[in-house]
Amino acid sequence: MVLKKQTVWLLSMLTIMVVLSAYYMLQGPIEQVPVASNSPSPEAQELQVDSQQIETGESMEGTAEAMPGSASDYFIETKLNRDAWQSQKMEEYLSIMTNAEDKEAVTQAKSNYDKLVTQQDTEMTVESLIKALGYNEAVIISKENRVNVIVQAEKLERQNAVEIMKLVTQHLEVPSNNIVVTYKP
């Protein structure tokens, strides 16, 4: 029964991804926005905060919700990419669990699958907590014990970045030197 619920969930996520992909295809090409590097700098071993504004190449007049190609599109696209990657990993683990004859491989795949599901739930929780701090949008991308947090804000003060890092450290159990916090207006 659990496998059926997971399959329904996976198919729902894939359907959402297809619908949003079609939407973006109809809206035309979207300019890619550069994202901060994951590599920690030597002078910021304990705390890494990117307080640079990410350039969009467009005038930021009006609200973000009203503009095509705005920050809200960036956050939707980033979340879709993250969800697609996670769905692909889940499919791999499910395939191993259903097709592998090696019990150790099945056990490892089940463990990885459960970790990924827990990670997804935790990421969604932390994103909600960050939004509760007053940010319009937030996205968390976790890969291999490294976490990128991107928030929608006109400016990100160091103390706000530290507060976000504390939330991420507390919930995702990642050391603060493996967390990068950036913002996009």
Write a structural description:
With 185 residues, the chain is of the alpha/beta class. The chain has one domain: Stage III sporulation protein AH-like (Helix Hairpins). Helix content is 54%, strand content 13%. It is built from 4 helices and 4 strands, in the order αβααββαβ. It has a 4-stranded mixed beta sheet, sandwiched between helices. α4 links the parallel β3 and β4. The protein is flat, with a radius of gyration of 18 Å. About 15% of the residues have low confidence.
Q: Whole-number average pLDDT?
A: 77
> How many domains in all?
1
Strand content: 5-15%
What summary fits the major beta sheet?
A: 4 strands, mixed
CA gyration radius, whole angstroms: 18 Å
H and E order: HEHHEEHE
The top-level CATH class is Mainly Alpha
Looking at CATH, which topology would you report? Helix Hairpins
Classify the secondary structure makeup into a structural class. alpha/beta
Strand order within the widest sheet? 1-4-3-2
CATH homologous superfamily annotation = Stage III sporulation protein AH-like
Query: What's the tally of helices?
Result: 4
CATH architecture: Orthogonal Bundle
Number of E strands? 4
How widely separated are the two ends? Answer: 44 Å
Please estimate the helix content: 40-55%
Q: Uncertain spans, ≥5 residues at pLDDT below 50?
A: 37-45, 51-68
Shape: flat
Entry summary:
This protein is an alpha/beta fold and 185 residues long.
Topology:
Layout: H1 2-27, E1 49-53, H2 71-99, H3 103-132, E2 138-143, E3 146-152, H4 158-172, E4 179-184
Parallel strand pairs: 1-4, 3-4
Antiparallel strand pairs: 2-3
Helix pairs in contact: 1-2, 2-3, 3-4
